[in-house]
Amino acid sequence: RDGKVASMIVRNALQQDAPGMAGLLNEIIAIGGATAHERPTDAAKTRHYAIDGPDVLSSVLAEEGGSILGWQSVEQFQGEPHIGTYVRPGVQAKVIGAAMFAITLEALKSRGVRHVIASIRADNAPGLAYYARIGFRDIGHEPDFALEDGRKVGRVHRRFDLNV
After folding, report:
1. Residue ranges of the chain with pLDDT lower than 50?
2. What is the pLDDT, as a whole number, of residue 142?
3. CA distance 93 to 103
């Protein structure tokens, strides 16, 4: 289902959104600190793991005037549904994530998904705040989680129960 908040549109992601979604993720990767992704991606990879690959359970994006403000996807990873949320730098904490999560929840409930896991870098304060704000609860910590360059940044695992 599509939803609208002010002039922002939140809708299911489509194959043709892959280049813009990859571009946004690459922008976030280049800045650093807000994602465990460390290497730039491309449209084909993004489409496979975030839009229509066999493990994708949900994929939504928020746009305004044709520009992608953020995207969120849930995919089966190691037997569990895992969520990733990416919002354009400078517009975080402006209802974008919450609006996307509302649509994501509908999609997951329709598929009978009972819970979703978020694994967030421990040094990603905005990401930790976002997932706490929308109701995710801590289920584990990985203090020794390290980036490819060996820097330990830690990781927090959180879970949201859907009550389906």
Report:
1. 1-5
2. 95
3. 17
> Which tens digit of pLDDT belongs to each residue from 122-162?
988 889 999 999 999 999 999 999 988 898 999 999 999 99
Measure the CA dihedral 119/147/154/23, to 10°.
Answer: -40
Residue 78 CA from chain centroid, whole number:
17
Q: Which helix or strand (DSSP H or E) is residue 10 part of? A: strand 8-12
Q: Rounded CA gap, 11 and 3, in Å?
A: 6
> Distance (Å, rounded) from C-alpha 133 to C-alpha 73?
18
Nearest Cα residue to 122 out of 86, 157, 153: 153
53: its two tokens: 């690959």
17: tokens are 């959104």
Helices (H), 32-164: 43-47, 96-110, 125-133
Q: What share of the chain is helix, strand, coil (3-state, %, to 5)?
A: 30, 35, 35
Burial of 34 (0-12, 13-18, 19+ CB in 10 A): buried
